Amino acid sequence: MRYLPCWKQIGISQDRYTELLHFCRQYPEWKAEANSLLGIRAIKMDGLPHGSGKSDPTSAAAMQRERLLAKIQVVDECAKAIGGGEWYAAIIQNVCIGRPYTQMDRALMPTSDKNAYFRRRREFFELLNKKREGIVITYSMGNDSVLTC
Prior knowledge:
Elements: H1 6-10, H2 14-25, H3 27-36, H4 57-81, H5 88-96, H6 114-134, E1 138-140, E2 146-148
Antiparallel strand pairs: 1-2
Helix pairs in contact: 3-4, 4-5, 4-6
């Protein structure tokens, strides 16, 4: 049987596959930034003018953290849905962190079957593609207006 790339097996374009992969590769950055946004922020009192004075840095940080956590949740849900969660750690290590299959800890995988792993990895991308197509993100702008992307 001839080898088909993952994106062809799923039925998406190579560009879409690359987009999904790069979306996942930002996972460690999102986790780090979300953790750094915990806590209270303060307005800098340096004597210089700063806009209208209606800034709420704590609220802005909380909103940014929620956006990051929503992205993290999408990746986590897709990884946990594959094989009942047995493949979660392996999928995160390979797809999000970029560790090649040959360098992965075999204890992370329920089986050492390479074909089974790559089948689960394909399922992850297929599920992630479906979730990303259906995502509607709503941002509250603070002044009773809503922006939907």
